[in-house]
Amino acid sequence: MTGAGARAAAHDGPRASWLAAGAVAAVAALPLVYVLVRAAGAGADTWSGLLDRRIPDLLANTIGLALAVCAGTLLIGTSLAWLVVRTDLPGRRALGVLCALPLAIPPYVGAVAYADVLGPRGALRDLLGVESLPSIFGFFGATLVLVVFTYPYVFLLASAALHNLNPSYEEAARALGRGWVRTLAGTTARLIVPALAGGTLLVGLYVLSDFGAVSLMRFDTFTTVIYAELGGRFDPPGAAALSSVLVVLTLLLLASGLAVRGRGRYEQTGAGFARSSTRELGRGRWAAFAFVAAVLGLALVLPLARLVTWTLDSAAGGSLGDYAGWTWNSLSVSFLAATVATVCALPVAVVMARSRARGGIVVGWLAQAGYALPGVIVALALVAISTRWFDPLYGTLGLLVAAFVIRFLPQAIQAEEAGLQQIGRNLTEAARALGASRASAFRRVVLPLLGPSLAASWAVVFLTAAKELPATLVLRPLGFDTLPVRVWTPARDGLYADAGPAALLLVLISLVPLALLLIRRRGAALSL
Amino acid sequence: MSVSLQGVRRSFGLTRAVEGVDLTVHPGELFAVLGPSGCGKTTLLRLIAGFERPDAGTVEVAGQEMAGPGVFVPPERRRIGMVFQDYALFPHLTVERNVAFGLARRERAQAKASLELVGLQHKAGRYPHELSGGERQRVALARALAPGPAVVLLDEPFSSLDASLRAELRREVELILREAGTTTLLVTHDQEEALSLADRLAVMRDGRLVQVGPPEEVYARPADRWAAQFVGEVNLIRGMARGQAVQTEIGTFDVAGDPPAGTVHLAVRPEQLAIRLDDPGNAEVVEREFRGHDVLYRLMHENGRMVLVQLPSVELFEVGQRVFVRPAPSAVAPVVG
Amino acid sequence: MRKLIALIAAAAALTGCGGGSDDADLVIYSGRSEPLIKPFLEEFAEKEGLNVKIRFGDTADLVGTLLEEGERTRADVFIGQDAAALERLREDGLLQPHEGTARVPERYRASDLTWTGLSGRARVLIVRDGAAHPESVFDLTDPRWRGKLAAPTTRNVSFRDFITVVRLKRGDEFARGYLEGLKRNGVEILASHGEVRRAVGEGEFDIGLVNHYYVELEKREGSDVSAVFTDQEPGGFGVVFNLASAGITASSEHAENAAKLLDYLLTPEVQERFARANFEYPLLPGLEAAPGVRPLEDVLTTEVSYEDIARATEGTEDLIAEAGLEE
Fold it and tell me: Residue C313: its chain A contacts at CB < 8 A?
């Protein structure tokens, strides 16, 4: 009616949300600011040394890995999505659920299983009866593991997009004389470009931030070297300088990903169609089935089978009580992170959804700095900040939770903002016209309606926090070991079997929030 | 209770949505603001409700200043009832709890009474998505009425209903509002709705009120050509004024008041013309739009202009027939400049 | 909302959010791996009735942590896999002397008593029985051994210290050439010493670069392997002898308990048991290595000061990276 956009600008969120959102954004952006300031302060010597010796190789390694993994996940994720949503693949419903489940397996857990099974003295060598296999370690292994355990991001977004695609477009293309292959490649693919870009962007961001999988696959990227700089080499300015390069790399990826996604976003008429054209694969059905089964074999059967056998004949150290303690630690830190992040994201989401003022956009971006901050960097920054200025915080669980919240706040914000967008402004206005104050309208109308989104936000943060490794390694309080730590410690020394039980427990507790997300069809909450 | 606006202005950036509106709605009156999309009528409603703050001017409800220099009462303290275009029923609450939303706990009985008023007491336990469009609208109305508001504001209340439902509900809503005896301000782009419901109405264009008056007057004596065209179908016919009559190519019309001498324009409603079969006559039927109880004809006049004529559907003319068109007996047409 | 806050507070209380280690009587950072040393630390805690908290990690990572924490650290005792780690901490003034370490022979401890070796390890070759092997570690670059050689990840401090000693004794150019030679010979870099010994034990490689006790561990599991102490000719290079070491932090709030722990680990009885459990060399005079381990007096070790090793460490990492062996 009367200039809806203009009206929104006039209705900036209530002051309380602005204050809260501002505070959250300031804390969330703190590590980013710290790293950039510290890197700028690193001497010319540090920089020139790094630029000469380390940065070129690291850029090549990191970018190469990100490109390879993105390409691989795009290929696998998209084809699986198409097969499951748009063809008469046998058992497509069940397969559709299974294809998303590798999200419960952290890539470093996958790497443990792969290093063992495909490693120099692994089961595959014995199976093939050959003397030796080409080494799994290095670029190839890192790419393989990351593709296999991150393709579900692309898969989930692509299948949601294919599901919601108005079939009339494809029917129109067919009616205009295009064959089904050309329709698929030309029309369908073009229409789901935003979803593909979004999924691939998530994968790319993950690759840049991954520490565990690349370490176990013995492939140096920025994260592993930054971690090493913090350790034995102990060169904080160098670590900060390398971190700043990684942050810039991440921001570039983020910007280009969002640009592609935005440019490809078409206005779609209608959505959520019961009817969708199903491609009959004919004889190809079983070939397609074999392809899906192969992917699931690599992504689910192989790692899980290995973890289960390790657990069954476990000679690994640690009593039942130890495992219970580590599991409890993992659960409680993830619970705290998920709860705090869900609460902190709320004012930011409100400001973003209800205000188009420039301030809202800035607050939104700052609060989502976590996208550009791999766990290693958050850890580095929080150690430095806390030991300098907030010493009582150092070494507490609170600091670890803060790291998780900063790191995973963007996911919570995205989920909640999407939820808020669904709640029309007029509902709040109706409540106010009926005598409810701003706060009471929010409590009585917005919060109850936001419930599913809050649950999704909580589950996503819980899932990612439970799997987090590098920040936990650096920031955990004394004697506070979580399951990821207990996977990492033996695995780093090549004692893969000893990592088995903790890894299996970790996968099991990750399945709960993942199931919650998949059942409620909130897989999209995993998106940007 | 009355609503009164004085010199109210509101701009969004460079867009002037409301530009100096003076308006008084009397207690118990059903008042409509009629205007095309983007004329500022919704903003006007939101200024009264308190969802917008006027840049200038004052808003009074029931004699109390709600907005003005240094004064701004938030919407929840204005005692207004609002029915939104899409009803804005709370999807997580039952019908009864929706209606009770604006009531204190001890006033819950009022919710039942309000539901009875709209005849939906049997749907109290349902959720909004389980209701039909018409039922939702009545729930929205019941909810707005339940707290006993000083004034009820309706924003395009029938626009999301099927045409078949619209007329029926319009009547029903009017009865409910009259029974409740509340002051009502309704905003719409549908002239038929405004004309049939309102005690008085205002025609709004580009942020200004062009004309305020009872429906018959607005229809019979539009303030200008635009208002004439917007409120119903009209033939703008040029003629020469001579005393109380204006001579045109179609015939001589009586006019209200004293028209200025010389060339004037008349706003002649289609029903103010009559035709009879006559070959060659002075016009030819080129189009016939059958509307049930009456028929709208488009005639090509011999002077080359299109003329609209509306007649009861008792006698039908065919396309291609030659006819003679002339002023209907006792037609009094207004001069519109 | 109030309920939520209460819930968070309850969860935080349950998981001990807040002070964390404030109730600890002794905080230990241990770069030595958990299965190896934990039994001894637990035994000590029980004997003294102390609440001991331990942070396990890579020696190098823990050094970094302690350097970052500085005097605000909560650690009382630092246990590392090599002496260079402790030397690094001493240089930064993060350690305090402990008289009790004087009982250790001077070459196995800091002259100012700020750290002490706990056990010794010799850098040897693990060789599959019946396989040919060189007598000098420097001959490993000979094409004869191409494809037969495994080494632990070059991030391992024992390997790194070995290269540092080569640099100190023979110069950077020699060390670089040596590393490049190893690379040319296709040395297989495995995740850990444990992997190297298993790879040789299973016959995948003929020769591995390890510490001597890994050979004994592999033998105990039934593999036919032997330790070869290289460069033992009179006046030869000898084998690099490294020390698992410990020290008390300068800012320790429980220095008394820390001292008790070091004294405990340095009692002859514990030294002997430790040596028998892990096949490392006890350092106190008069104690013998576990049966089957070549007695220390029969081993020619490289003369080098641990201070020099500590100072040269950073250069070694660069050298390894430049040789393309970093993995």
Answer: 232
Q: Do chains C and A touch (3 or more CB pairs under 8 A)?
A: yes
- What was the pLDDT predicted at A232? 64
Min Cα distance B310 → chain A (Å) is 32
Tokens of B183: 């002051």
- Cβ atoms within 10 Å of A69's Cβ, excluding its own: 28
Among B184, B203, B227, the domain-final residue is B227
- Put simply, the chain A residues between 405 and 434 with a CB less than 8 A from any chain B CB are 424, 426-427, 429-434
Nearest C-alpha neighbor of B160 from the set B270, B230, B83: B83
Q: CB-based contact (8 Å) between A436 and chain B?
A: yes
State the nearest Cα–Cα gap between A449 and chain B, in angstroms.
7
Whether the bond into A152 is cis, omega within 30 of 0: no
Residue indicated by tokens 């990276």: C321
The answer to whether the CB atoms of A228 and C204 lie below 8 A apart is no
Q: CB contact, 8 Å: C33 with chain A?
A: yes
Task: State which residues form the domain around B60.
Answer: 3-79+149-227
Residue B168 and residue B57 share a domain = yes
Q: How many domains does chain B have?
A: 2
Cβ-defined contact of A396 to C194 (cutoff 8 Å): no
Instruction: Nearest chain B residue to A447 by CA: give it.
Output: B92
List C-alpha distances in Å: A426 to A308, A446, C36: 53, 11, 66
Percent of chain C past pLDDT 70, that is, above it, reads 93
Domain positions in chain C: 2-120+242-288, 122-240+308-322
A339/C7 touch (CB, cutoff 8 Å), yes or no: yes
Q: What fold does the segment set A12-266+285-526 form as a domain?
A: MetI-like fold (1.10.3720)
What dihedral do alpha carbons A121, A122, A125, A126 form, nearest 10°?
Answer: 100
Nearest to A421 by CA among A449, A458, A462: A449
CATH class of C122-240+308-322: alpha beta
For the cut 70, the answer to whether the pLDDT of residue B203 exceeds it is yes
Mean pLDDT of B131-155: 91
Interface list for C 151-180 with A (CB within 8 A): 153, 155, 157
CATH number for B45: 3.40.50.300
Listed residues B227, B258, B279: the one ending a domain: B227
Task: Note the pLDDT tens digit of each residue in C198-229.
Answer: 889 888 899 999 999 999 989 988 889 999 99
Report which residue type is found at B18.
V
**SS3 of B319, please?**
coil
In terms of domains, do B186 and B59 share one?
A: yes
- Whether the pLDDT of residue A4 is over 50: the answer is no
**What local confidence, expressed as pLDDT, does residue A517 receive?**
86
What CATH homologous superfamily does C2-120+242-288 map to? Answer: Periplasmic binding protein-like II (3.40.190.10)
Task: Say which residue, B334 or B75, is predicted with more confidence.
Answer: B75
Is there a single domain that holds both residue B295 and residue B214? no
Beta bridge partners of B300: B284, B306
pLDDT at C13: 54
Q: What ipTM goes with this model?
A: 0.82
Mean predicted lDDT score pLDDT of chain A:
86
CB A94 within 8 A of CB A292: no
Close Cβ partners of A358 (under 8 Å, ≥ 6 residues apart)? none
- Best A469, A495, A496 member to test C by mutation, with max C CBs in 10 Å, is A495
Shortest Cα–Cα distance, C47 to chain A (Å): 20
How far from A141 is each of A113, A135, C113, C205, CA to CA, in Å? 12, 8, 47, 22
In a shared domain, residues B302 and B189 = no
What gap in Å lies between CA B118 and CA C161, rounded to an integer?
A: 89
Strands C188-190 and C149-152, bridge-based pairing: parallel
> Which residues partner with C247 through β-bridges?
C78, C115
- Reported as a single tens digit per residue, the pLDDT across A39-74 is 988 888 888 888 887 889 899 999 999 999 999 999
